[in-house]
Every structure is written in C-alpha cells, then in structure tokens.
Specification:
By secondary structure, this protein is mostly helical. The protein has three helices and no strands. It has a domain at 163-216.
Length: 217
C-alpha cells in the first residue's frame, strides 16, 4: 500500500513537470494556479500517504503484537497439550495398572470363594460330628443315669445285705449261746430227765434257725 502511494506521488510530479514543459504553453497565471493546485493535491496526497503509512505501521505493529500474542497462546496451548498428553499417558498407564489389579482381585475373589466353599464343607462335617458327639453324649448320659440308679440300688442292697448279715451274726451268736446252754443243761440234768432236755434244746434251736432263715430271705 505504501509503495502504491509512493508511485502515485512520483507519477503526479512527472505529470506536473511534463505539463509545465509542454509546447502548448498556457498562461503564466494559469500555470501558477495549476501548479498550486497540483502542489496542494500533492501535499494532500503526501499527508494522506503519511496517515496511511502511519495507519499501516500501526496495523503492522498490531499484527506483530497479535502474532506474538498468538504465538504465546500457541506455546501455552502446546504446553497444555503436552501436559494433557502426559496426563493421558499417565491415565493410560494407570488404567493398565488398574486392569492388572482388577484381574488379581478377581483371582483372589475366586480363591476366597473356593476357600469359603471348603470351609463350608468342613463346617458341615464338624456340625455332623458335633451332632454325633451330642447323640453319643446323650446316650452316655442315659447310661450314666442308669449306672447311677443301678449303683444306688446295689448300694441299697449292700446296706440291706450288711444289715441282714448283722442280724445273722446276732442270731448265730444267739444260737451259739443257746447251744452252749443246751450242752451245759445236758450235762447237769439227771438221768431221768435226760431225754426231755435235749428235745427242748433242739426245739429252741429249730425255732431260732427258722427265724434266721426268714430274716435272710
């Protein structure tokens, strides 16, 4: 744009010079008037060219500023893009790690399920064994109660037997005393009463023996 204005100014000056040296000479006043007009136009063109040049320079400066700003923005964008790419790479790596961890956790879950199934089976077996032991304990308890009852009965029978044994011992001692008395009486009785005394002793011994047998049974 500046070059065009410069060419336009030079062309105007050439036209003025050519017109001034033309063979068809005009009047001096007309020439001065035309020259003044051309000078004014040239000045206007120069001022306009200066303004345009200044405007263009400002536009160029603004363009440089905008370009610098855009370059800075682009650099920031590229940095952000680089960080985003790094973040995406990190996210991808984390995703891979999480995938591996999920696989490991799934395997651990399956293993724990198997362990749980095994423990459930063992618990069932233990429960059955506990039930079996409880049944045995119940039967053993009943047997123990029966044994205690039998022991109590045997103890009672033993006490009764001991009591009967004491009674028998007393009867035995009594019979021995009676027998001794009969012997003494047999030796001390006269000859005439010798038959009656043994008979009475035998009768007394028979009664005592009958009572003793009755007590024993």
């Amino acid at each position: 744009m500046i070059a065009c204005l410069f060419l336009w100014s030079v062309s105007s000056l050439i036209i003025i010079v050519v017109w001034a040296t033309s063979p068809d000479m005009k009047g001096a006043s007309q020439c001065r008037t035309d020259l003044q007009n051309l000078t004014e136009k040239h000045e206007e063109a120069r001022v306009l060219s200066s303004k345009i040049k200044q405007a263009l320079e400002e536009m160029v400066e603004e363009g440089h500023t905008n370009q610098t700003r855009q370059l800075m923005n682009m650099e920031r964008f590229l940095k952000r893009l680089g960080k985003t790419n790094v973040s995406l790479a990190d996210c991808h790596q984390e995703s891979v790690i999480l995938g591996v961890n999920i696989t490991v956790l799934e395997k651990e879950i399956e293993m724990h399920k198997e362990i749980e199934a095994n423990l459930t089976s063992e618990i069932t077996l233990h429960q059955e064994h506990i039930k079996f032991l409880q049944d045995n304990l119940t039967r053993t308890s009943h047997k123990w109660e029966s044994c205690e009852a039998l022991y109590s009965a045997a103890e009672s029978q033993q006490i009764a037997a001991e009591s009967q044994a004491k009674d028998c011992e007393s009867n035995k001692q009594y019979l021995q005393k009676q027998l001794q008395m009969c012997k003494v009486n047999h030796h001390s009785e006269p000859v005439n009463g010798g038959v009656a005394a043994p008979q009475s002793c035998i009768l007394a011994l028979s009664v005592v023996l009958f009572v003793s047998l009755h007590l024993i049974t």
